[in-house]
Amino acid sequence: MALVVMKFGGSSVKTPEHIKRVADIIIGKYRQKNRIVVVVSAPGDTTDELIEMAQQISKNPDEREMDMLLATGEQISIALLAMALKARRVAAISFTGPQAGIFADSSYTKARITRIVPTRIVEALKKNMIVVVAGFQGINPRQEITTLGRGGSDLTAVALAAALKADICEIYTDVDGVYTTDPRLIPQARKIAEISYDEMLEMAGSGAQVMQSRSIEVAKKFGVVIEVKNTFHPEKSGTIIKQEVRKMEEVVVSGVTFDKNQAKLSVIDVPDRPGVAAKIFGMLGKNNINVDMIIQSAARQNYNDISFTVAKTDLAKTLRVLRRAKPLVGASDIISKDNIAKVSIVGVGMRSHSGIAARMFGALARENINIEMIATSEIKISCVIAARDLHRAVQVLHEEFGLDKGTKQ
């Protein structure tokens, strides 16, 4: 019997009718002689609604209490889904993250899984039960519930698939799979049949919201094969995310991604001496602020500027840290900007093809789109641009690399 981990996002379980539909999909898979572990997110917009409620109480709510609050969303889903399965005379049991044996570190709201001891899951599977697990949550060393960051249910599903040595991890969402770009923005976007872990990791990290980037890191480390499928059309094949194979290099650019949740900060007139950057980014790290792109200007009269980007949701927190750092490093000013966006092209074929950056920059220049920052990796090029130019930038890059036609690049 194959072991299948199935994960359903918030849009898949947002109403009782949706939950009944999900139960039917699960039972269909179960009756094909599979052992089933299901991971679910909170219903619909429940997490956003809980965050909004918390901010009505406090502009800076305590992070421990936020985890206590947000973890309740997934518990609604697991209980209702288990009820739906049992109503159809199928043996099922629901577990919270701690009950499922998911242990995490002490970083509230952004915890990392440290280990999984799935004793109760294994026992239930031996009894031929369908196991329903709350995504997004675990238990920390203080025996307190904590959450794994936005999109954390993906991480729960992939980590459980790794721990249980599942045959496949199916991620059900409201789209047919991974696309060359967001089809809601570019109707000509095409579904990708297969994509490598590295490409998916870069796409997730640069704005594609189909999968959480940390979940792809775990999948790559443990070789978990993932299929992204549509809850509302489960009969359709989705996108397989797996180890890179040779033929993937034939496609230069696999996708264009974007991220509107970006803010740019600049620390002005920083003394040009060793240890200054380490002090700035050390303070940000201690406050669990993830930094994306970093640029340091050339020194002028023994001073330079350091610019970097963070998630827009971290802007206020970052400014507080930088204001404390400013006198410690001798900077003259802190400047912030939140009307920006990041656009990226991703593809394993970029390793073996030259001139890709020139084509990207040329395409943006023809549209008179100014580039404020540039960052590259082996298979990705990212540019920070004005938010008002984002739609045009995605469209022109999608066309430049033939992604709307599926042609050779």
Biggest β-sheet strands, sense, barrel: 8 strands, mixed
Give the termini distance in whole angstroms: 42 Å
Rough outline: globular
- The arrangement of helices and strands along the chain is EHEHHEEEHEEEHEEHHEEEHEEHEHEEH
CATH class of the largest domain: Alpha Beta
Number of domains: 2
Class from helix and strand fractions: alpha/beta
Mean pLDDT: 93
Query: Which bin fits the share of residues in helices?
Result: 25-40%
Number of helices: 11
Q: Which range does the strand content fall in?
A: 25-35%
Overview of the structural elements:
With about 400 residues, this protein is α/β, with parallel strands linked by helices. The chain has two domains: about 5-175, Carbamate kinase (3-Layer(aba) Sandwich), CATH 3.40.1160; about 255-400, 2-Layer Sandwich (VC0802-like), CATH 3.30.2130. Helices cover about 35% and strands about 25% of the residues. It is built from eleven helices and 18 strands. It has helices at about 15-30, 45-55, 65-85, 120-125, 150-165, 195-205, 215-220, 275-285, 315-330, 355-365, 390-400; strands spanning about 5-10, 35-40, 90-95, 100-105, 115, 130-135, 135-140, 145, 170-175, 195, 225-230, 240, 255-270, 290-295, 305-310, 335-345, 375, 380-385. The strands form four sheets. It has an eight-stranded mixed beta sheet with strand order 3-6-2-1-9-11-12-10, with helices on both faces. The chain has a six-stranded antiparallel beta sheet with strand order 14-15-13-16-18-17. A hairpin with an 8-residue loop joins β11 (about 225-230) and β12 (about 240). The longest helix is centred in the first third of the chain and has 25 residues, at about 65-85. The two termini are about 40 Å apart.
